[in-house]
Specification:
single chain; 340 residues; alpha/beta; Rossmann fold; N-(1-d-carboxylethyl)-l-norvaline Dehydrogenase, domain 2; 2 domains; two-stranded antiparallel sheet
Length: 340
């Protein structure tokens, strides 16, 4: 397969290592020319993925037109809040005939666009002329780049309305250590991948405050309830949230030392403001901006999402983490039901 990867962060690099091991022809697009040149020279991103080399056969370029030249498949691996701008640049630089020739768009970015509240597949459909959903597949699940790049066993899901495309991704991306299942619930997979980052920030706050396993278990369980509530309202299948894209990715993101969203929660719990915490991060914590989006969706659909609400107030309204936890614990007592 001839594949262009949009983005050159840790996940994009991990995918380049994985896909090159399968013999695929790859290009890696980095929007910043200086960063592209540095990566081309060193073949490594030590600040984000130390010790992992981009294979020499992978073309690294700051030109999106060059990256897409002769490519049949495009992997979207840029941060969710820059996806639209990236696609606009692509449409402006690449001939329509070349865009029409792309057989599949593979989304690995996780998030919900602020203001528009669009999922990444929605953004693709809005920005790529003539694109239909049967050319899109979403790959998601518990898959930290640090582990995938080192061939540690990982399982994810490929979701598409086009099962031929999902099975193609399953076949072409799978290795002895990277297992892919297929799914048809694209919206559920995207929502699960996005909302779990908000809950992971809450889990990080628990860690930062020195709470124990009981607290973490409660956050994950009640966080799943919030994920399912939103998924139901937005037409997702409840069973999706019980799979790799849901509970699997939530557990990993909430407990892992590699999790940037859990780390963000820790920093906030330590007393740092959001701007101070962001300066400490070397990689994008998608959950920060996604918290805004999920909070707005909860209001739009009139859904009770108390953990999301408290994370939002802690990040954006200056509420102390301890007060947020206290308010969660002192909410009205209820039966344990999914709709309560």
């Amino acid at each position: 397969m001839n594949i262009a990867i949009l983005g050159a962060g840790s996940w994009a690099i991990a995918l380049s290592v994985l896909l090159r091991s399968r013999g695929h022809n790859l290009s890696l697009w980095e929007f910043n020319p200086a960063d592209a040149e540095a990566l081309k020279n060193t073949r490594e991103l030590p600040a984000k993925l130390p010790g992992i080399k981009v294979p020499d056969e992978v073309l690294i370029t700051p030109s999106i037109a060059t990256a897409l030249e002769g490519k049949e498949y495009v992997i979207v691996a840029v941060p969710s809040q820059t996806t639209r701008a990236t696609l606009k640049s692509l449409v402006g630089a690449v001939p329509q005939a070349a865009i029409d020739g792309i057989q599949g768009w593979i989304v690995v970015s996780k998030g919900i666009e602020c203001d528009t509240l669009s999922l990444m597949t929605d953004v693709l459909m809005q920005e790529i002329p003539g694109l239909s959903s049967n050319k899109i597949v979403v790959i998601s699940g518990p898959s930290h780049a640090e582990e995938v790049s080192r061939n540690l066993p990982t399982a994810v899901v490929a979701a598409s309305t086009n099962q031929h495309l999902a099975r193609l991704a399953q076949h072409e991306f799978s290795t002895k250590t990277f297992r892919i299942y297929t799914n048809t619930d694209v919206r559920g997979v995207e929502l699960a991948a996005s909302v779990k980052n908000v809950i992971a920030i809450a889990a990080g706050i628990c860690d930062g405050l020195g709470f124990g396993d009981n607290s973490k278990g409660a956050i994950l369980t009640r966080g799943m309830v919030e994920m399912v509530r939103l998924g139901r309202k937005m037409g997702a299948k409840e069973q999706t949230f019980n799979g790799l894209a849901g509970i699997g990715d939530l557990i990993t993101t909430a407990i892992s030392k590699h999790s940037r969203n859990r780390r963000m929660g820790e920093l906030i719990a330590s007393g740092l403001t959001l701007s101070q915490a962001l300066k400490r991060m070397t990689m994008v914590a998608e959950g920060v901006e996604t918290t805004k989006s999920v909070y707005q969706l909860a209001q739009k659909y009139d859904i009770e999402m108390p953990i999301t609400q408290e994370v939002y107030k802690t990040l954006f309204e200056g509420k102390s983490a301890l007060n947020a936890v206290a308010d969660l614990m002192m909410r009205e007592r209820k039966p344990e039901r999914l709709d309560q």
